[in-house]
Amino acid sequence: MRRILVLAVALAATAGGAWAQAAPDMPEDVLKSIQRSPSTWERTAIGLILGFGGPNGLTAQGLDQAIEVQRAGVRARARADLLVADLNDDGAVSIEERDLALRPLSENHRARLVQRLLAADANGDGTVTSAEVTAAARRVADAEPDADQLARLRAILAMNADGKGGVTVDELHRGLQRLIAK
Hints:
Blueprint: H1 2-14, H2 28-36, H3 38-52, H4 60-85, E1 92-93, H5 95-102, H6 107-120, E2 128-129, H7 130-142, H8 147-154, H9 169-181
Antiparallel strand pairs: 1-2
Helix pairs in contact: 1-2, 1-3, 1-8, 3-4, 3-9, 4-7, 6-7
């Protein structure tokens, strides 16, 4: 998701150039970040456009799909925590299983896994069930992207210079060239 959000900021920032009237509230720091590393932003943007865009470029539907895919990945990673620590495959992780599963992990990985499992233990009984992990995974995924990041993602659509409904690679390239020239 970070790549998508970075892309959103980059694309939204480009709106400040030729399309200033389409994104009048574009923060100056976002514009400057794009100008510092335009090729990185462009590579990320092209990946998103080609991955989630259609014949007329990246549309609102494509952005929604990108968000759905990212959230599904977040949910899957959160659920993987249960699989790693559910040593007897009963669909729940007891404190004993958790402690044993932590042994081969690095210090940082142990800390992250414990934090995730503690946060998932909704009833505080020390056992994390599959339902608790699923609920926790949904909470984490639904919080990503946050409201500010989501607004920046939606700002991509303001980059549609030709009015055909989506942002194409050519529109992106031209917009970044104008931004770099300033």
